Fold:
Amino acid sequence: MPYPNEHSCRLADPGQFDRFARKNGEQEHEGKKIDVVYGVKDGKSEIQALRYDKSTWTADAAHSHCQSRDGSFEAASEEKESMTEVIKHEDDKWVLYSSDGSKKLGEFDSEEDAIKREKQIQYFKHQESDIKESLRQRHSEIIQELGKRNASADAGRIKKIMELCQELLSSEPTEEKTTEALKEADSTLVWLREQPIVKTEDSIQFPAAAYAYTPDSQNPSTWRVRLQETSGKVTTKQLEKCANYLSPGGHKGELPFIALAEVKRRIRSEYRKLGIEEDMPRWVKEAELRTLLTNYIPLTEAKLDKGLAMITVIKAGFNESKDRYYPLDTLCRDFSVFEGLKMYADHPSEDDERNRPERSIRDWVATLKNVHMDKDTVVGEAQIVEPWMQEKLATLRDKGMLKDMGISINAVGAATEATIEGVKTNYIERIARGRSVDFVTEAGAGGLVEMYEADRDIDIDFVSLNTLKERRPELVKEIETSVRNSLMKEVKKHMELEEEIKELKESNTTLATENETLKTEKANAEKAKLLAETKATVEAAIGKAELPEAAKARLLEMFKDTVSAEGLEAAIEAEKAYIAAISEAGKVKGMGGKGEDPEADKKALKESWKKLHPEYTEEQLEVAISGR
Structure:
């Protein structure tokens, strides 16, 4: 709402202050005075707004100055001032009245003082309007945040502030009450923005973690590929939907090509959490490289106590050289492969690995136990079995030299190529097997322990099929025979099942036919029984009726093939009425009695039939009285 006498430049939201103070003419620009409004909160003040008297400032000049202060400008209203309506000169005093003249607002010794007070009143009216506008804005922001966040933790608080905002915005509350409501709205909004953002599907709220693709964590409308079937629960059924979504034409361009690899990794990770590896749908699989995992961690932060050392095994994230990336999900799922591993002094040499892959008992110095996750780190307890190693570690600790020794994993994993944080690397999807976790004296280049690259011709974890065919043809043959026999058993079992299914189908068809035949025979038997029972009932009733034989024969013919005697009594009565009618009609007439009237007799007969058979149509009644 613009002021009537001055232009306004807002520099700060009035809703963030407890009270205000105004100093007129405190600043000056190009010889023109500027009034300053201060906002005060917690005993500290700052400039909240500037005011420009429109009698000395044009709107353009004031706007230009406001822009130089990065403020929000509002020109004065175009309405003409009518000060005489609120300021009157009475008894040598200048008296200020409300705009309708009903209330005296003050008496002043000069007109200038009265005008100054009138400006203050206008200012506070506008200030109150600003606060109410701020409350309206907060109300709108709360509604927007409610639409995307889980606020169930304090639903009562939300309901209370919403009702308060609606009440105040639809009425004319005091400035004090509006200011208090604005404070509560600000507090609620801060709390609300701390709640997790969710996306609602099928009336269920899901967090960002429930989706494989979340390009904008603050905007749920961008989230795609939901992994959870219900909140917090990933199921095979839902993962199959995700896989189908990634099939050709499934997502129809909704996912950018660059995001597909990461989305597939997320889905594969969830499948593995459910213990599914081989049966993953092909749409989410990627070519994996089986690789040797080695990673060096210094013993700087190791804790030693009576033959036990709490050590860090491996941390989530990049290794030192950034040629491998260990995702947290992989470590959380596979950390148990390190449980119970023997710990040796130094990694094996290439010659040791060729000639003594099982390692020497002389080098075994500890066993790794109680392996678990600590936030993003795999940690464990090295139970040291060699006294000399205990003594060496204690000496290094006492001399502050633990950083010069470390441990290095020796494990086997599977990786896919990926770009993480702009770095091309090997993304470790699985840690398939732990070999050992060894004490070593130093790391090689980039943090990796100096160690030979696995010889894939002799290392059983990496040996290729071609090498097996060349070195162990009899083993390959044995494997082939075993697989062939297994397949033959499966094929035979499948054929037997197919034959059983065929027999069951034929048996089912026969049973269905027999069932229909039995149903038909049962229905016919029941009908024959009803016909016999109805015939006996009809014959008994007609036999007792006092009717001529011809009439009885007609009734028997009428109910010959019926399965119910319904209507029999009515038919008998009709026959009796008919016979009575024709008997009356056959009497000798014209012998001194009343004159004959055939039409009246016919009408009487028709009325008799109508009473007996109210459901008959006119045509049926005509047939009944004339068709015998």
